[in-house]
């Protein structure tokens, strides 16, 4: 009986050896799955590849080949998502949907794949918004000048001058409106006496 117990003890493998044996038995399945995952990646189906890779990771979670492919997939998905977000941002910008564009570019800014492109998108939004404000101020100030609403024209032109400090035309219009307002005030004062 002691011989039987001793024989069983010598045949028994330590737990770590059993784990290694189980792992070795699963490796052909993992290799087959990784081969499938590679083909799915080649087909451009990154999300499907990520899902299929989960099966390989379930068999052997720390297999270096599986982890390398997982890293490759996550990097490719990150790049793809960044590019899609940037595309959405520029499409929204082109459509004049500044808030939507701003949200997309801010989201893209948080991506590790952003190399300043998102910041450029945000600059373009700011520029387009400023251009819209300048256009509106120009139109409104011209209407005010045509209607002789000198104080309104002056207020609009001052705001416009802050946004376009080098504009000689805006400065000339502002000077004209201020002169007209001064003349009008003098005329009113003259008529009172």
Structure description:
The structure is a single chain. This protein has 193 residues and is mainly α. The protein is built from eight helices and no strands. It has helices spanning 2-11, 15-42, 46-59, 64-94, 98-109, 117-146, 150-163, 168-192. Helix 6 runs antiparallel to helix 7 (150-163). The longest helix is centred in the middle third of the chain and has 31 residues, at 64-94. The radius of gyration is 36 Å and the shape is rod-shaped.
- Strand element count: 0
Q: What is the average per-residue confidence, as pLDDT, rounded to a whole number?
A: 88
Instruction: Output the structural class.
Output: mainly alpha
> How many angstroms does the end-to-end distance come to?
136 Å
The portion of residues forming beta strands comes to under 5%
Helix/strand order, N-terminal first: HHHHHHHH
Number of helices: 8
Helix content: over 70%
Report the biggest beta sheet as strand number plus sense, adding barrel if it closes. none
Radius of gyration: 36 Å
Residue runs with pLDDT of under 50 for 5 or more positions: 1-15
Shape: rod-shaped
Helices and strands in order, then pairings?
Layout: H1 2-11, H2 15-42, H3 46-59, H4 64-94, H5 98-109, H6 117-146, H7 150-163, H8 168-192
Helix pairs in contact: 2-3, 2-4, 3-4, 4-5, 4-6, 5-6, 6-7, 7-8
